[in-house]
Write a structure and sequence with these properties.
Length: 1222
């Protein structure tokens, strides 16, 4: 069974809404929607503060504010989900517990005879908050009514004669009759603008055109329809003095923005007469009240900024983030609209004006941003205003306008700065600078077009490189899992220590003052000043410390004060140094030795023995001597037959000076816990709390309680494994193991952003912590560490001190259990393909340069395609060299290619297509290019071969280059600097994806399904052929493939499903059987074999990470392989979880994950996913509180047959292991 889990959630923002979710209208909220989640923020002085979030089972495509019908009622939020199960979900905000609650759900799904809307899948809310119109199917609209007095919803369908609806807008309402503007595409592909009357009393959309808008055919100035299509902005009636705008719509999209005004009473009477006589002529009827040139690319986002009785101003942004303020106020002063360019942001998918000149811009192609509009332009030589491409402009001073939303420019103009222009034309203000200031950003890695996995720093931890972004924000994102380590200072002249012990001058001091360090042979002492960049080396002898022996442990200790009632531990300037020969109690303040202890103090038999290992807390010393542990005064002792390897008496609870139990590691590869019995003995637990048969010798142990109910035993083993096990009162929990490299693992407690954690350090380092009741493993990107310790110095209270072979490093760990994402900006060069070449330590990136020219140049854009291939240093990310493709040539595939033979060079192989040579939508020309990378010499063109089509995919298989070219799979051999074509396997349809495992190749075609091929290579390695092993003929429309094994392939299709096929024998035939189908609800563009953890990481026999996948919404997921026996238990857990968590939701989990069919439909035969488990749902079990009602429902099920057969501890251990794999 395969398990699908999410590593990085979708980051592309699909919608946002500024609203008042409480009755206090002074509190401003912002709701942000990704494809799978809603997040609620409140506007605060420090910016946006997250209040809550909620998961949606379905793909969100639109988010709107449902305004309150009257004060003091709070606004609501509506979210619209996509096919195959479209739903309109209304949410209200519960201020008491800060959560979103589902108020109403309208199912919009229909069966048979309906076609999903091609252009418009959206919801529109009437300004009075009483009605919503939803467009999801062609030829009909769903009307949802809200009765505020009864607090009830009602919905009904109306027929819409505009089949190709582009946009819709509410205009005017009178007595439950609403005027609705409709923008549509007719059968001649002309854009038409109508208005119809929506009668909610008679539940119909009038088949006749209404008289509110003059019907017309807006001229967008283009031969083809833009993407996105033109849309409507409703404009309510407003005016100044005796002049008034009667209300209407703005048509945005195309070369101009046009304002169409509503009609007056005289025209409405005339229109009724013309309509009766069937003499309405759209070509002559509607003319815009005003228009203004749009100087940039297609409009992608807009929102009202200031709309009231006297003003109408809108924020509008294009596909390249160029944002402007459209002012309609100047209709009454200068006779036209005014466009004020503000600056450049990320490409906008949604804009929401919040308050005080601050708006949120959500993006699909770049980082979402919180933006402030300044009143005055910022003039800078670095940040320049966007180009207007020669559009006529005027100076802003002639208009008296500011980039703000205060009431400016109300009065009549005495001089028109556009003298000679028609009054219908608008004015574009010449920008003197930029008005936008980016306040905050929200990281977005969507859309992910390609990805690769590589360990570039030799740490053993792979990083993900993604080809992300688009438009003006193309980028390569470097992503890794774990914590971020920030170097604060390097201390030269000290290093290569095996142990380091920070010491305070007095026990109660908040900061460390000394550093005792040992290299395994000697001991050194340092004084830490206020600046840790310089430390003072001290003579240990002057402080009564022994420098000629290694220090086993050193720590502060308190002065015990005994009373008849109890023992207290007072502040003291004392430290303990334990060496193999003795224990020294030293007064650091007075530089004097107070007491010593040697093993012979126990008795004559121990004379000459050495201390093997020891540990110290603030009230006790624990040590092992000649296979027997003892304390300073030998108050407690116990003997074992097995020698002790390590021990710990560090208090479990931070801040306590004592402990009631200790951990002891033995040379028989076991660990056991003991408590201090009465009278004064090491007492084992009954039953014993013991870990036996460990993989290696325990070298360090540590007990730590993250909370009163969450205590863990940590063990660092000699083979580089960090072992973690939960500790209950009477039993040990399941073990989790983490590989830290080949070196022994050391353990230290530390504090990170106010939370306690354990820092584990071997060849690699990691932070082990507990979040939301679940153990988290966060790798830290440091290496070659010989020792570590927690450090607190003035100004740097929560630091980690690391010893390398040459120096000491003081640093801070941040972002525990978070993804560390670094962006390499490419701007207009949008990365579309990338690969890593380990020999030259470079990253190859295929880019497609996009043209940000105005939308009026749309027809010329296809003639300016420019593709480049950039080679980057995989550590510094510096661009080393660039290869420019030919004009109109586009890079479509990239792979690292290594020909056979000893000493063979490694090349970058590029597959391309020529856009100018496309016949019947099929490319007829392309190239395969081999480039030799060099860090010093740049790129060298080694070979190129022309092909008769587009190279959709490339693979390197056994030293041969395999290419998917149109409807064929071709095999090439490289010999004598020439790429030689040796075999062609022809197919019926265009092959768009390839995957391989060994010599087994899987191909996916654009129409049909999947085939399995074997590459057969001749003895001379020059001849090769492809043999068909098995084929599947189902109409699956694959999008991407990943080779799971030699006989299994996983993939995605255009219906947002995951599938898997296996090669199986059916009698004498070999067939591809589909054994898995799962609705991923996302467009998966790439599969990569591998995992996010090191290759030597500890694996469990029941669970292993096999594949990563990447989507257009920015989601990164992992597909895990689960054993058959374990998957049976997890299937039952998923069933019970789905039943328990579906309460209050708007759909069932089984229905959501059922595979989607063609045209957004589902078959009743598919009742849930097959062959895949939902790992995200399973991990919700870790969030349940043991003993809660939901927890009991999950464990017990709804009947005796559904009761889970494994324990809670076992389930939790499995899920934590699974969580650690992604």
């Amino acid at each position: 069974m395969k398990v699908v889990a999410t590593f990085h959630p979708p980051s592309s923002v699909v919608g946002s809404a500024a609203c008042h979710l409480s009755t206090d209208k002074d509190v401003h909220h912002l709701v942000v929607a990704t494809s799978s989640r809603l997040e609620v923020y409140v506007a605060a002085d420090e910016g946006l503060r997250l209040l809550c979030s909620t998961e949606i089972w379905g793909r969100i495509v639109s988010l709107k504010k449902w305004p309150a019908p009257k004060d003091p009622v709070a606004d609501s939020i509506v979210a619209l989900t996509d096919h195959p199960d479209p739903r309109l979900i209304c949410f209200t905000f519960n201020s008491a517990n800060a959560s979103l609650e589902r108020a109403h759900v309208v199912s919009l799904a229909e069966r048979g005879g309906v076609r999903p809307a091609e252009f418009l899948h959206d919801v529109f809310i009437s300004p009075d908050g009483k009605n919503a119109v939803v467009s999801v199917y062609t030829g009909k609209l769903r009307v949802v009514m809200f009765d505020a007095e009864k607090n009830k919803f009602r919905d009904f369908d109306v027929t819409c004669q505009e089949y190709n609806l582009l946009s819709l807008a509410f205009l005017e309402s009178r007595k439950n009759k609403y005027q609705v503007a409709l923008l549509s595409l007719d059968h001649e592909e002309r854009i038409r603008l109508y208005s119809r009357e929506l009668d909610t009393d008679n539940v119909e959309l009038s088949p006749n055109l209404s008289h509110y808008l003059r019907p017309c055919i807006p001229n967008i100035g283009l031969k083809t329809l833009t993407d996105p299509a033109p849309s409507l902005i409703p404009v309510q009636n407003f005016g100044v003095d005796e002049e008034e705008f009667l209300g209407g719509v703005l048509v945005i999209g195309g070369a101009k923005i046009r304002l169409y005004e509503g009609t007056d009473e005289e025209y409405r009477k005339k229109f009724k007469v013309l309509q009766k006589k069937n003499r309405v002529n759209e070509d002559k009827q509607g003319k815009p009240r005003a228009s203004i040139p749009w100087p940039w690319a297609e409009v992608t986002a807009w929102c009202p900024a200031l709309v009231d009785r006297e003003h109408a101003r809108f924020l509008i942004s294009d596909g390249f983030g160029r944002t402007a303020l459209l002012v309609l106020d100047t209709l009454f002063t200068y006779g036209g609209m005014t466009l004020l360019p503000l600056g450049e942001t990320s490409p906008g998918a949604t804009i929401s004006y919040i308050t005080n000149n601050v708006f949120f811009l959500g993006s699909h192609f770049g980082d979402s941003q919180l933006v402030r509009i300044n009143r005055e332009a910022l003039v800078s030589s670095v940040i320049k205003p966007p180009s207007l491409y020669g559009a006529p402009t005027v100076d802003i001073s002639t208009l008296g306008l500011q980039a703000s939303f205060s009431a400016k420019g109300k009065g009549k103009a005495t001089d028109d700065p556009r003298a000679g222009d028609s009054k219908s034309k608008g004015t574009i203000v010449a920008p003197k600078g930029v008005y936008l200031d980016i306040v905050d950003t929200r990281t977005n890695i969507a859309p992910i077009m390609d990805a690769t996995l590589a360990d570039t720093d030799g740490s053993g931890l792979p990083q993900i490189f993604t080809a992300s972004g688009g438009k003006n924000t193309g980028s390569v994102r470097v992503i890794r899992n774990g914590a971020d380590f920030t170097d604060l200072v390097h201390i030269e002249g000290a290093g290569n220590f095996t142990h380091i012990f920070p010491l305070r001058a007095w026990s109660d001091d908040p900061h460390d003052a000394y550093l005792l360090a040992t290299d395994g042979l000697t001991t050194q002492l340092f004084r830490l000043g206020t600046s840790t960049s310089r430390i003072e080396r001290l003579d240990p002898l002057l402080y009564s410390l022994k420098p000629t022996s290694p220090t086993l442990v050193a720590a502060n200790i308190r002065q015990p004060v005994r009373t008849p009632e109890r023992i207290t531990y007072d502040n003291a300037p004392w430290i303990i140094q334990v060496t193999p020969e003795r224990i020294s109690l030293v007064d650091l303040d007075n530089r004097m030795q107070l007491a010593t202890w040697v093993p012979s103090d126990i008795g004559e038999p121990y004379k000459g023995c050495e201390i093997a290992c020891a540990d110290v807390n603030e009230s006790m010393i624990l040590l092992a001597v000649s296979e027997k542990p003892s304390s300073l005064r030998a108050t407690m002792a116990r003997s074992w037959l097995v020698s002790i390897a390590t021990l710990s008496c560090i208090p479990e609870t931070p801040g306590k000076p004592f402990t009631l139990r200790v951990a002891v590691g033995f040379w028989d590869n076991s660990i056991e816990l003991f408590h201090f019995g009465i009278p004064g003995q090491f007492t084992p637990y009954s039953p014993p709390l013991r870990l036996a048969s460990l993989s290696s010798l325990p070298r360090s142990v540590l007990l730590h309680a993250f909370s009163p109910s969450e205590t863990y035993l940590f063990a660092g083993l000699a083979d580089g494994t960090a072992l973690v096990c939960g500790v209950n009162k009477n039993a040990m929990g399941d073990k989790r193991a983490f590989a830290m490299g080949p070196s022994p693992v050391g353990l230290n407690k530390c504090v990170i952003t106010g939370q306690t954690a354990v820092f584990a350090c071997g060849s690699r380092a990691a932070v082990l912590s507990v979040q939301a009741g679940s153990l988290q493993h966060s790798p830290v990107l440091v290496k070659d560490i010989t020792a570590s310790a927690a450090l607190a110095v003035p100004g740097w209270e929560e630091c980690v001190l690391l010893s390398t072979q040459t120096h000491l490093v003081v640093g801070k760990v941040k972002g525990v259990n978070k993804m560390q994402i670094r962006s390499i900006a490419f701007g207009l060069d949008n990365p579309v393909r990338l690969t890593h070449e380990p020999v030259s330590r470079t990253l190859g990136v295929g880019c497609l340069k996009v043209d940000p020219t105005p939308v009026s140049y749309l027809e010329e854009r296809d003639q300016t395609i420019l593709s480049t291939f950039k080679v980057l240093d995989d550590t510094t990310y510096e661009v080393l060299s660039t290869y420019d493709c030919k004009p109109l040539e586009e890079i479509t595939a990239v792979v690292t290619f290594m020909p056979p033979g000893d000493g063979a060079k490694t090349y970058y192989a590029l597959g391309t297509m020529f856009n100018k040579e496309i016949v019947h939508d099929e490319p007829t020309s392309g190239r395969i290019i081999l480039l030799l990378p060099g860090r010093d010499d740049g790129l060298a063109l080694e070979s190129e071969t022309s092909v008769n089509g587009c190279v959709y995919a490339l693979l390197c298989v056994e030293g041969h280059l395999v290419a998917a070219m149109n409807s064929a799979v071709m095999v090439f051999n490289f010999d004598n600097s020439t790429l030689e074509h040796v075999y062609t396997w022809n197919h019926d349809y265009i092959v768009t994806s390839l995957a391989s495992h060994g010599r087994r190749i899987f191909d996916g075609d654009a129409v049909h399904s999947v085939s399995a091929l074997d590459l057969e290579i001749g003895e001379d390695m020059r001849h090769a052929s492809l043999k068909t092993v098995a084929r599947n003929y189902g109409p699956l429309w694959p999008n991407a493939l990943g080779a799971w094994s030699e006989d299994t392939v996983v993939g995605s299709n255009t219906d947002l499903n995951l599938f898997s096929f296996s090669v199986q024998k059916n009698g004498s035939q070999t067939v591809l059987e589909r054994d898995g189908f799962f609705h991923a609800d996302d467009v998966i563009n790439k599969f990569i074999t591998g995992s996010l953890h090191s290759s030597d990481d500890v694996h469990t026999p029941d669970l292993s990470a096999k594949q990563l996948f990447f989507t257009s919404s920015g989601r990164i997921g992992a597909i895990l392989d689960m054993s058959t026996e374990l998957s049976l238990h997890m299937s039952r857990l998923q069933r019970n979880l789905a039943a328990a968590l579906s309460s209050g939701r708007d759909t069932s989990h089984a229905k959501w994950r059922s595979p989607s069919g063609a045209r957004g439909t589902r078959s009743d035969a598919d009742d849930g996913a097959v062959g895949f488990l939902d790992g995200d749902l399973l991990e919700h079990f870790l969030e349940l509180a043991p003993g809660s009602t939901t927890f009991k429902k999950v464990m017990e099920g709804s009947s005796a047959a559904e009761k889970l057969e494994i324990t809670y501890e076992h389930i939790r251990g499995i899920l934590e292991t699974m969580q650690g794999m992604h």
